[in-house]
Amino acid sequence: MTPGLRSTLVQVAAPLVTILVVAGVSRAKRLSPREDLRLVPPPALAGVLWLAGWGLWVALGQYAAPWLGEEPVQRWSYTGAALWLRAVGILLFAPAAEELLFRGLLFGQLERTRLGTAGALVVSAALFAVLHLQYAPLSMALIFLDGLVLGAARAQARSVLLCFLMHALGNAVALAERWPAG
Predict the structure, then answer these.
(1) pLDDT of 62-96, one tens digit each?
(2) What is the pTM of this model?
(3) What is the b/e burial string over 123-145, where b = at least 16 CB atoms within 10 angstroms of the residue's CB?
(4) Which of 136, 143, 153, 170, CA to CA, is 20 to 30 A from 56?
(5) Structural domain boundaries, residue 149
């Protein structure tokens, strides 16, 4: 097994384990996938507007990154199975795991406390940014803002499925940047 494939398998396994942990915690706490985790489709108009707004947000981030001193993204050198597994992990598994954890389980539980919706929004966005410690501080700040937008979509549309779609769209742009040339 190549080192690239080995590291890819680890990166793909982490979100899958997260999904299993969220499912286990949800089952143990007898949380409803619909009512507590908000695994429901968004209202159609809200979904379209949030996805369009998110697309603009992602485009603005791409445009602003060089002006903010962000280093250019390096294209991957992965090939074959490692490349395709990474793509599936970034497009599907990571958004599913992160949205189930941060905007599903965590947001839903925090919203019921004294923190309310605003507190759930800020705490879940902050923890979402901390999960991405491998990035530069400016990138983490932008990821925190992403978390706020995703949390606002969850709060307004009451749908983690919408957050998953938004997150996957953002990751698709990141994947396109990193895809090997040629």
Answers:
(1) 888 888 888 888 999 999 999 999 999 999 999 99
(2) 0.94
(3) bbbeebbebeeeeeeebbebbbe
(4) 136
(5) 3-178
